[in-house]
Structures are given as structure tokens and as C-alpha cells.
Amino acid sequence: MGLPVLIIAAGPPALAVADALRRELDTRVEIAPNRRAGLAALRRGEFALVLLEESLAAAEPEATEMLYQSAMAAPVVELNFGISSVQRVLRQVRSTLARRAHDQAQARLEASVSLQNELKATLTGLLLESQLALREAAPAQALKLRHVVELAGDLRNRLRA
After folding, report:
1. Rounded distance, CA 123 to CA 159, Å?
2. CA–CA distance, 38 with 141 (Å, rounded to integer)
3. What sections of 3-85 are H helices per DSSP?
4. Which of 62, 111, 118, 156 has its C-alpha lying 20 to 30 A from 81's C-alpha?
5. Pairwise CA distance, residues 40 & 67, whole Å
């Protein structure tokens, strides 16, 4: 089970959404009945998603801005819990969590490619320098340098695969 979902809303509609999220998506849910409790929850932990009651967001724009900033990487979705059906909220949550998972996978892939490219460049430099040193090496050092050239070449080949 991943990060929990934070619901910042009060009343029966928020409870119904929380129950549906637990049941349908098998996710942990934390409910904060107001903005202050929501901010405190965001300071305590990380969330996969924040669902915010529209009326709370509209009442105090500055406080809402603080909520958005405190959410960090968690997407914030503003909803009117009074008129949104539980099924609609579930669809929006599924979509948002899927988009977040896709974005995270894409970021991991890009970081991996970037790291591989950096390692390849460093290994190429190491391989070239060790090959040059091998050409000028005394017989006593040549065996060790040849081993370094082989190791660097093997690493480079592994990174290519």
C-alpha cells in the first residue's frame, strides 16, 4: 500500500468518499475536517493525493495557497463533496493517482538514463586514459594497467546492455 490520501472536508459526504476509497482502491485515507487540520496533516506526513472541499478553498485564498505549497508533490484536487457523487470522486482519484504514478515512472526512467550517460562518459575517459598509460607503462606496471583496461571495458559493455 502506497502513500495515503488526505481528505480536507467535513461531514457525511467526506466520510462516504473515504469509505469508498478504502474499499474500492484499498488505500489509506486520512480526514482533516478543516484547513488547519489539513495543514497539520501535511506537516506530519506525505500524501499521494489531497482532496480539498471547494468551499474551504474559496473561503480563504491565502490559506488555500499555503495548503497547495504544503502538499509538495501530492496533487491537490478541489471538489464540491456535496454535489459530487462518490463514483465521480473515485474516477478522479484513480485518474490522478495513475497520472502521478506515470509521472514518477517517467522521472525515474529519465534519472536512470541520465545516470547511465554520466557513467558511460566517465568510463570512456577512464578507459582511454588507462589505455594511454598502458602504452607508456613499464613492464612491471603493464599487467596491472591491462587489468584496469579490461575492468573499465567490461563496465562500459555492461552499461551498454
Report:
1. 10
2. 66
3. 12-25, 35-44, 54-59, 61-71
4. 62
5. 10
E strands of the chain, at which residues?
5-8, 29-32, 49-53, 76-79
Mean pLDDT, all residues of the chain: 91
| Dist CA 86 CA 89 (whole Å) | 5
Q: Where exactly are the structural domains of the chain?
A: 5-84, 111-160
Beta-strand relationship, 29-32 and 49-53: unpaired
Asked: is 5-84 a CATH 3.10.450 domain? The reply is: no
**How far is CA 77 from each of CA 7, 74, 82, 96, rounded to the nearest angstrom?**
10, 10, 15, 9
Grid cell, residue 59, equals: 473561503
pTM given for the model: 0.76
